[in-house]
Design brief:
By secondary structure, the chain is of the alpha/beta class. Helix content is 50%, strand content 14%.
Amino acid sequence: MSGLESPSIALVGAGAMGGALVRGWIEAVRKGGGLTLTVVEPHFDPDLERELDAAGAVINPPDAGPVDVLVLAVKPQTFPSVVESARKFVGEDTRIMSIMAGVTLETLGRAFNAQRVVRCMPNSPARIGRGVTAYVATPACTAEDRRLIEQLLEPLGAVEPIAAERLMDVVTAVSGSGPAYVFLLAEVLAAAAEQEGLDREAAMRLASRTVAGAGALMLETGEAPGALRKQVASAGGTTEAALDILGAGDGLGPLLRRAVSAAAQRSRDLGKG
């Protein structure tokens, strides 16, 4: 791990996202990566706790001092109750990294009297290392800080820097909430197939694998979605008949734009507290 030779990390919260992160860090330790890890979690998954213990991590220490990076992976509504106990990990040079939705850089900086703060938004496929995490950093964060944060986020999947914090509401609406839209697409597609005569299990298998395979094809080929769509839709064919419906004035495009706009506005509202 570049940046710091052997960074010390304190993770507060080892649930779904925190657990995904820490498992990636454990793997880095197993491969010889330099890293000192402390994890605070009141309700550990027993398997994760055993993995942490085997990796030499410090678990729920009664006392602790400052670390290089404090990672906050608790629910936003839990944040006020953990601030006081988390402050023991913060020193003059500590970077604060949050994966809490809606908690602003200003709020984080004020809570810990810190300048080097990063706010991240992962999504649910991060649980299997196939997600995308967008992040925004305060101006006080150095290039080295950013490299370190990106390396810490890599176990979750792709990492995408964002230019301004105000855009994190859009990120929330697109990549944060986006998996739910895709799951809904698979669900509705399966229901439509069932209505046309397929049995429920076969319909769900076809719909789920079609959605997953199409996503993988976009990533692996690097081709634009529009180009791939045109490859499937031959003139006068079955796909074109379906796309005529989905591309209509009241079809999928306007519907998704309204959905993303609603999610982004809700994110803005939540950020106001």
